[in-house]
Amino acid sequence: MLFTTFAAFLSVFTLARALPAPAEEHAKRGLATVYSGCKSANTVAMTFDDGPYIYEQDIVNTLNQNGIKGTFFINGDNWECVYDSSTISSLKSAYNSGHQIGSHTWHHYDLTTLSWDQIHDEMWRTELAMRRILGVAPAIMRPPYGNYNDLVRSASSIRNQSLIIWDFDDGDSTGSSVSQSETDYNNLVKQHPKNVLALNHETYETSAHTVIPYAIKKLKAAGYKFATVSECLGLPAYSWYGAPQKKDSTWTC
Predict the structure, then answer these.
(1) Are strands 100-103 and 71-74 parallel, antiparallel or unpaired?
(2) Which residues pair with 198 in a beta bridge?
(3) Cα–Cα nearest to 116, from 193, 237, 44, 23
(4) Digits of tens for pLDDT over the chain (253 positions)?
(5) Which of 47, 123, 161, 242 is the most exposed place for a label (fewest CB within 10 A)?
């Protein structure tokens, strides 16, 4: 009995010694690729951050009416809880309409201020919600505020994710008025870059109902095609496919 106990202890001790510390693990693993623009010519990827929120369905309807597939980077517990019945409904509607869903982490914390374990927790909680609600795990992640470091890139690499930033910001989250955002889109169209990866937020009524429809009209008139982030970069949309689950008491924020 004593030998068995000692052998078990030795086995656990050996395993613990064999497992690298987070910093060592980070150093040995690769870093996720960071993309700040599309690759496909004459293509726009419209992205929407910080949801799911009450305006998501309206944005989905606008995109669907225009034959456009967009990309939604979602949080788990930011403006609303991803497990609320209304947010589950709008998220499923977006996914089932063919729009891409990416991770924006759980709380929208600045990941560069967090520890290795905290970064993984922020990522995993959102991935778990997507697995439960949609039956997929994201292959793309947008770090909140666009902030990342090598720890974040390493954690994303482990999770088979690419980091997605942007090359155009309509300014809605930093105080731009409707007029200012529309002017920014007008200037973008005049410059006519070969492709655009546009940052918008689904959490502002003026963005959802005024700026985004205006931007789509202008970009379409300029001859741009529209695609999801993965389509415009030639990347997989999801790293895992399964089946949606039925909501139970564990689905909480």
Answers:
(1) parallel
(2) 46, 168
(3) 23
(4) 433 333 433 333 333 333 334 555 554 569 999 999 999 999 999 999 999 999 999 999 999 999 999 999 999 999 999 999 999 999 999 999 999 999 999 999 999 999 999 999 999 999 999 999 999 999 999 999 999 999 999 999 999 999 999 999 999 989 899 999 999 999 999 999 999 999 999 999 999 999 999 999 999 999 999 999 999 999 999 999 999 999 999 999 9
(5) 242
199 membership: H or E segment, kind and range: strand 195-201
In the structure encoding, which two tokens stand for residue 78, read together?
A: 């930011």
Q: Is 19 exposed, middle or buried (0-12, 13-18, 19+ CB in 10 A)?
A: exposed
The pTM (predicted TM-score) of the whole model is 0.89
Query: How open is the CA angle 82-158-103, to the nearest 5 degrees?
Result: 25
Give the 3-state secondary structure of residue 78. Answer: coil
> Distances from the Cα of 81 to the Cαs of 37, 72, 137, in angstroms?
30, 15, 18
Please report the domains of the chain, with CATH numbers, ordered by start residue.
Answer: 27-241 (3.20.20.370)
End-to-end CA distance of the chain: 45
- Measured at the CA of 133, the angle between CA 128 and CA 137, to 5 degrees, comes to 45
Q: What is the spatial distance between Cα 239 and Cα 90, in angstroms, rounded to a whole number?
A: 22
How far apart CA 82 and CA 130 sit, in angstroms, is 9
Backbone torsions φ then ψ of 131, nearest 5 degrees? -60, -45
Q: Tell me the three state secondary structure of residue 9.
A: helix
Spatial CA neighbour of 71 closest among 10, 162, 6: 162
